[in-house]
């Protein structure tokens, strides 16, 4: 069996090794291979790729070229070809089961993807200063999922130990593409949590200070991720600009209009046009523009109200320039609150491992498509929670200078371990 | 000597062969190799690359990676490695001299570059229907420079023939990077036309119908090409958007503001934001945006007035988002009118070859950095002209459906030949 | 003594009489005259105009012409000239005291101003259908302050009755210009609440249903109201548009930019550009533009962060058009929470009068400059509350179809009466 | 007969008297009364108001209130009530005929309206310094029509003199509402020039220096003037902004979009959003916005192309905010060139009166709805010209500091007199 070159065993070491090689959504080949190999070594039963992900539920999957490139890069880093072969079309999930007699099915979810953010190259930024910054330009673990993955592997090791006392079935879900809200649904649709009694996910940081644990994240927002494509007509920018239909100006007006959508007196909203790519040449009227955007709302009703406005804005901006417009769905997530039973268990586990400060609820601010798992588990009679593990941050999530207090990692490992042992 | 594979000899065949393999500014390696090889075969003395281009006058040269890729692509198409080797850093000009005793130095300029435009894939588009459409996605000869290059080679052959009667020195200048106004100045600065007595350039099409020749293009505009880079700060789009400084919205406001600059009661103006590239991820406040833009004016004064406004707009748009902004000069061209003596000679030559309809002046609408040659020649006491060869068009210059009536090609060949023979 | 013609005595009648004649901030001459006359009849000691308002604390006072016009309109409606004479420069506040021996000083605040909103002329709109709609085009009691004023007068009558049992000093404050946050501060600065032990204000509606009372409004936002004036240069729009400096486009870019300010992950924000007035003629480049705007934030820190962005946006928009810009402060309000003692008293009073449903806190959504009174009272050792009296609405506050369930009026009268009697 | 108080007889005096009392389109009551009274004194046969203007061809007539106010202001200035009575609904045209036997019908057109521009109050501005600046705030003769009117009256006096030698019929047309292109068509539709053999109009200034005359203005643009009304829904800007539909932002986006319309490679275009009026209150989502705009093109085809774009932009901007939009036509003018015979006569007359410098054609830059007269005269077999009388300017037309060299006035008087005497 091929070996992922030099992959460490301690949680901080694993986090740093993962940090160096960030992979974006549905392209986490080297990460998934590391995970699978380690879990197999620990004796877990593995299901990988298409076995646990429904391809038809994958929104905005990568191109074949991007997949081939990511696979090659993973192989070049020493990923085992047998793992890569099992994830043919961006299905980079790994689900690991371990059974210890009768008892509840407890599932833990860990997300593994990185972001297309350029990591800061400055001595003030610890990953750079200490030599574990991203080696892949323009990609970065800027949301702590490197930590989440490392925590999951450390928890897997702890619970696989004979000393660890628990009964029933343990299921570890290493999910791709949490960013953008694309990765959970294909797993849910494949039935991965249909028999789960207890489900937990969690997140580092989120402005909760080091040393604290929150029994529940609240404020999960409903969200839509989509691309908008404007198609116009090119023309010589000086000889006959009047013959062009300007997709770039349509995108610019749409971007400004989208950010100018009204706040909602009934609850939180967010909107972001994250990228614009428009035009081909300086002296040609731009005939093509693509924007990547998202919008979020505190309730399903607010999301629906935003959806109407977003549609009006992109249609209107297109009409202003007489260009065609198309909207491509790329991700969704739903808002759901952790349930009381799950919160009780987190509080109990945090107490058991000696966490000094346990807060009841803490606003997560953003979203996490773990909510799809949570909804499915609850619909089928189980309990579902989402906790936060406090970690001081060097900068906000998604910033190029993001980093977190690694002292939170062993706390998280103990917390998840205790959750299973107490189930 | 390596041979450019299957390069034809007739002007229409040459045009189509060039059309299939479009190369953008300072990357015309295969085109230049074809040109050089043919001219060498015809007995011209060649100067290539750094011999005729001052690198320090090349605005916005391509990256080393782009150059390497273009060189390899040219080699793959059969370009002679000895030619490629002589054009190390994007200096893809070829200047060919032939001397027949004492007499004036007559220079003809032909531009060879293509555009980053996607060619139409439709049976209504002749190059596609007849199988000579671009084989390079996103690049296209959408302004007729394939025709210009073919004309230049055919003129070279005609004038090299012993039957052709002329005296003095003939200089053929195959210039890269006319689009964007970047290619002429490095040649001028290298002194390529310092000893020229008569200079001619020309253009196909420009809305002049097939069968006609214009003795002069007028309305050459002064132009500036520049990139504008906005640099802000990223942030999580939902957890803490207030921490971001949004470069994308700065670029959007700048694009709208630039296109909304006032017309000028004193003469023609044009402006185009041709491309925008902004942001990295959907759920991150965009911290980076680049726009490629140009602006043009009928006089140097109008250009200066626009320059002031452009600066105000990009500075103001940056201030609105509290982002930094930088402007990178990428090209310039100047306005100059063909002189009377040059016009007289074009009219005389057109009459000699039997052109039915000779118009005196015809608006070119855009610009051409041939004006830098024209100014230098005139400053040193020579005459400089710029004629138009009528060609019915299928669509406007720079459109993905651009094509021209190839019947114009032999007319142009005869006209330029006659200009030299009459000099 | 002159009599305000036909002003009724029942609370619904008073509300409707006030509704027909809406007066905007600092111009409530007829309203204040009605109030003063009635309170004088009831035996209150009155302080009016400059006696209770510091002119130098009045932001954005009306012009002398607007004041003269409002005074004349009030006189035409039968307002007593002796009252009008006491409010020379827009100081339209009336403060009424009644003393019954030793005891606490209890103050009630009622706001009296209307909005520049056009009232709906439709049979679906009860004030129109039943004949008490505004007779003043473009002005309307669209926020219920007509009800507040009527409640205040009915409370004044109830507490002036010999049967009403209370001790100490009662102070009724009829405040102008609550909209825009301009009216409270001049009263506070004049010391009107410096000796107050208990202070209460309240609001009808705010989405609280009829039959309910909220012991506290929460979510008072910090707010800034300001005008932004852009000054450019005019020019003939066709002969020489380039000579103009376009204040209208600066205002348009600023309006879009302001609405596009990011949400804040730390709390609620709001922004509104409520009006734009720009330019003078169709064929002249607009040399002048004025926008009336406001922004609000959940905390003082968020407000400060918005202030920085607002400044960047208006400065940047001005720079884009090379126009001058000036910001005129027009109002501020602060966020403060009702205190526990005040909430307890509202709950007790609501119980005493038999309100079926008492909720503890209810989001007010907007702001109310009653917060200035509340802060001053608390700074000097008193208690300050703000309650909501539920009233079903026909449309949102500030809409042209706004109306409220008048059954709430007697509830409010009993509640405020009970608050004083229980003090 | 009533007398217009103190109206002088010399051309400069008349110009200054008119300058002090500017009246905008269709409201020129005092101006028309002065004109009518003087022409009646001189013995001309007058037709006034509805006799020479078709009401149904008056675009965007003023409101009854504005007319009543203008009439009263004119009466207050001493205008004869008998004249005011003959112009009931804004029909402020005066057409005066004088007949001297058989011969051609020669018509001269003079425009009389002012602009809604605030006149500069600075000693650098001669009308202010010398005490003849506008006494009406916000209105100004900023295009020289005060001069045109004075010229017309002086020409009327000169040609009414027994010494003046001419035959046929002289028709003097004093036209209202030239600005905005509204005044000529109602006169043309009433048949005022149907029998005219020779028609002349003219303009002072237009960047032609003092002492020169241009035999023709060229570059008359086709133009459309229109208002665009956006209607949305109001809402409380903080409690429920999501319920609003924001007409102000629609207008802002439209204004930016309209100014950003592409230039046209086929000829001159212009666009201006001259005014925006939006919203009613700072804390209410603006439910109403009106923009006054115009666009112009060198040819009827360009105008049609712009019309399509304008419609797309206003419809698209409305869609972006989900507001209704309506376009109100407010004026049109057409492009037409003066004919050769008319030019010849201007050149001849200019020579006869000793003008030193006669240029053949001079760009007018803007438009003048005199073109409607010109087209009708030519359609019926006559000749029509438009000359320019050079006059140094202190600032561009329509600026608040506009003023012209009054030495041009007697030149213009002699030129028009000579045109009639030479007819």
Task: Give a description of the structure.
Chains A, B, C, D: Mn(2+) binds at residues 143, 145, 179, 203, 398. Chains A, B, C, D: It comes from Gluconacetobacter tumulicola. Chains A, B, C, D: This is Amidohydrolase. Chains A, B, C, D: Keywords: Hydrolase, Manganese, Metal-binding. Chains A, B, C, D: GO terms for molecular function: dipeptidase activity; metal ion binding; para-aminobenzoyl-glutamate hydrolase activity. Four copies of one chain form a homotetramer. The first copy, chain A, has helices at 11-20, 29-41, 64-76, 81-85, 126-129, 145-160, 184-189, 247-259, 300-321, 340-353, 370-379, 408-421; strands at residues 45-48, 94-100, 105-111, 168-175, 198-204, 212-218, 222-231, 269-278, 288-297, 324-333, 357-363, 383-389. Chain A has twelve helices and twelve strands. Chain A folds into two domains: 11-220 and 336-421, 3-Layer(aba) Sandwich (Aminopeptidase); 222-333, 2-Layer Sandwich (Alpha-Beta Plaits), CATH 3.30.70.360. In chain A, helix 1 (11-20) packs antiparallel against helix 6 and helix 10 (340-353) crosses helix 12 (408-421). In chain A, the strands form two sheets. Chain A has an eight-stranded mixed β-sheet. A four-stranded antiparallel β-sheet of chain A has the order 8-9-7-10. By secondary structure, chain A is an alpha/beta fold. Chains in contact: A-B, A-C, A-D, B-C, B-D, C-D. At the A-B interface, helix 8, strand 8 and strand 9 of A face helix 8, strand 8 and strand 9 of B. Strand 8 of chain C pairs antiparallel with strand 8 of chain D.
